[in-house]
Amino acid sequence: MAGQRGMREQNVDLARLIVSCRDRHGIVAALSTCLADAGANIVGSDQYSTDPEGGSFFLRMEFHLANLERERAALETRLEAIAGELDLEWRLTPSSVRKRVAIFASKTDHCLLDLLWRWRRLELPMDVVCVVSNHPDLESEVRAFGVPYHHIPVTPETKASAEQQQLGLLAGKVDLVVMARYMQILTADFLERIGAPVVNIHHSFLPAFAGSKPYERAHDRGVKLIGATAHYATADLDEGPIIEQDVSRASHRAGPEELEAIGRDVERTVLARAVRWHLDDRVFVDGRRTIVF
């Protein structure tokens, strides 16, 4: 696919340095000096501290280093020495390396097709490994994008074996799983064994209107805002760290169908933002919340 080939032609000498640690004096100076001594030019930098005296510190630096692939090992050796001195958790990611993503969906298509469209339009720098669904309904639409489609039915009786199939298909082979309105709860065992973060989209500001028929219940309550929440999935249902949220206004004249249409627009926009920020290494998990640069 020509568009996907074009996406691969990114600047191979750009990289990101991701750091988290206990805050202390001299972290930014030490890292900046390290990159400068290696011949790198910092082109973007974001940082945040929960408390300048011993709080949690988060940093994301983008830099350019000529011949990055050749110079990377030497730079990582320098960074490892600094990490040892300052007790840093860190990783270095070339910007041209795309994350491998699996998308889970059920029968509802708006979030799934929006992600695939944005991917095809080069808005989401990722490799879509496959789509996994508990229904066959969306297979033809997904395959039109040139993406493999795996139909794995799930019932209460077969849920354990279905997750085993999913794990056999994906564990260790993906960097991110996106639940694009996948109407199944992923078990704690699956989340632990998949070996990758899982991003979910929820139809409201959590935890309001959790459960079935949210738009009918929203209509009954006369809501004036329709929202959506993208969060990391955890063993605690809908309690994972929130990545992104947004709302749209709603009138008393809108019925449940109109509210649902508004909700679809918000959901796909919020999910696309959350996925893009994760792909760009902009999201740091800090306990039950996130820091997003």
Describe the structure.
The chain has helices at 2-8, 27-37, 68-86, 110-120, 139-143, 159-170, 188-193, 214-221, 256-279; strands spanning 14-22, 41-49, 56-64, 89-94, 99-105, 126-133, 149-151, 176-179, 198-202, 225-232, 242-249, 283-286, 289-292. 35% of the residues lie in helices and 29% in strands. The mean pLDDT is 92. The two termini are 31 Å apart. The protein is of the alpha/beta class and 293 residues long.
Question: How many beta-strand runs?
Answer: 13
- Distance, first to last CA: 31 Å
User: Which sheet architecture does the biggest sheet show?
Assistant: 7 strands, mixed
Structural class: alpha/beta
Order of strands across the widest beta sheet? 7-6-5-8-9-10-11
Radius of gyration over all CA atoms, rounded: 21 Å
Shape: globular
What's the pLDDT, averaged over the residues?
A: 92
Query: Portion of residues in helices?
Result: 25-40%
Q: DSSP helix count? A: 9
